[in-house]
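Bug #77: duplicate submission created two jobs. Keeping one. Sequence:
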Amino acid sequence: MAMAKILIVEDEAALVDLMRDSLAAQGFLLDHVDDGNKAIAQLKYNQYDLIILDWSLPGSDGLTILKAYRDNGGQSPVLMLTGKRKLEDKETGLESGADDYLTKPFHVRELIARIKALLRRRVVSPAGSLTAGGIELDSPARRVFRDGKELLLLPKEFALLEFLMKHPSEVFSAEALIQRVWPTDSEVTPAAIRIYVTRLRKKIDKDESSSLITTVHGVGYRLDP
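Kept job's structure:
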């Protein structure tokens, strides 16, 4: 993890300097761009282990960058930075493909904790494969297949599916999923969990009438093997 390569997309010079100094001290390799259009080009031709992405930027904004990155097959975790504090804004960021969300101003120690948590979920997984309802999840390779065809899941989508497949037929509340799948200091909310579940269903289910993940109303979510 110490040699992970991170792209910082941020136009506030003082914040960039703080992040650069703090993250370099942790051993991370860093690139930086301060313009949204430059970020799109940078992500098109370079690979990163994690992206720190500001919402408000000159050129293209963070949501546009994120959409372009995901549409081009980018799967590295994205930590979005923003001064927006409304729940609706956080949901918008998560719906657009962000893996975590940090509201400005923030303490650099929290930033580092979020980064390390996202990188752990990307590279660490118990050995073995899991199967359920035509879905095969290969934990070591971080790959998911439905009826032999590979599905492209974002890191948090993979982590959520992996957890549910490890505990088939068990019902977990949104709060329980936050505690077990997300960092304990994350700003993820029960509303955000609903977004992740909806997004995951669209990718793993053959049709909407027979989802692998069942909503137990008033209780939580269950994966039916």
